[in-house]
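Lecture notes, part 5. Sequence design as translation. It can be helpful to think of inverse folding as translation between two languages: the language of shapes and the language of residues. The source text, in structure tokens, appears below.
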């Protein structure tokens, strides 16, 4: 069973330099995630959800504030943090078992223990019998199961999921949501899910962190006090979903895309307007 980790984010600020000017991406983020929790993060495009995950996984280190896992400041990537992206990122020339085994490249386990651990995690994600299959022989959902097994095989303290089901059809997505809950409950691991889908966030998360954009800030943390398994058609589920959706209601669509025009600030000539495509 995995060892669940406690994540503490304190006064996190992140900015990029664009054309010589500072562009704030995350501002004053404070968040504590308890061991074994399942936390969903939602927000409009550009609110910094994926940037936040990149900082937690250790892919970027240039920020202000603190990101602590079990009391230790995160510095670089580590085996105690796993991540699953929207694209499964499997190596097409490797079998299922060899793709999963990549997660153990820096492990201290003996060869025999590695084989047993790989086999255990392939079974965990429901792919026993497909050990020798190649990615092109798998469906999209099966490929994501392999990616989840690879992220869990070194038994991390925390698993980060960046839109892991975003590219899948609705039926496969719903099925894998159920499977992810099963894995979370069986492994007892801390999970953080980034998603655009409010229903998915409420279905999976004990808490839903609602972010607002430019710069990315936490608007509210909405608790979801519903037992698992959750019934999507129930009144209680609809009420929880509405509580999250309500946090978006106070922002006009244009404001969610760009910061409001400062009072008294002149509007640029139309010839200087830029449009996202």
């Amino acid at each position: 069973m995995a060892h669940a980790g406690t994540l503490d984010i304190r006064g996190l600020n992140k900015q990029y330099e664009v054309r010589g000017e500072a562009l704030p991406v995350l501002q004053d983020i404070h968040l504590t995630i308890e061991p074994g929790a399942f936390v969903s993060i939602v927000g409009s495009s550009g609110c910094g959800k994926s940037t936040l995950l990149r900082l937690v996984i250790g892919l970027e280190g240039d920020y202000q504030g603190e990101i602590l896992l079990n009391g230790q400041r995160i510095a670089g990537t580590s085996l105690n943090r796993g991540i699953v992206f929207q694209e499964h990122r499997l190596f097409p020339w490797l079998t299922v078992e060899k793709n999963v085994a990549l997660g153990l490249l820096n492990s201290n386990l003996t060869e025999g223990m590695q084989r047993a651990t790989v086999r255990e995690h392939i079974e965990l994600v429901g792919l026993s019998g497909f050990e020798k299959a190649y990615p092109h022989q798998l469906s999209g959902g099966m490929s994501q199961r392999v990616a989840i097994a690879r992220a869990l095989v070194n038994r991390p303290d925390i698993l980060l999921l960046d839109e892991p089901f975003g590219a899948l059809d609705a039926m496969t997505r719903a099925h894998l949501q159920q499977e992810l809950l099963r894995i979370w409950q069986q492994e007892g691991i801390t999970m953080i899910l980034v998603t655009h889908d409010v229903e998915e966030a409420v279905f999976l998360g004990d808490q839903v962190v609602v972010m607002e954009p430019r710069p990315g800030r936490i608007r509210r943390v909405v608790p979801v006090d519903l037992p698992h398994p959750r019934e999507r058609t129930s009144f209680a589920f609809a009420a929880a979903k509405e509580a999250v959706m309500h946090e978006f209601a106070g922002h006009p669509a244009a404001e969610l895309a760009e910061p409001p025009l400062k009072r008294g600030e002149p509007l640029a000539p139309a010839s200087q307007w830029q449009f996202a495509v």
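The translated text above is only one of many valid answers, since several sequences can fold into similar shapes. Residues 252-277 have pLDDT under 50 and may be disordered.
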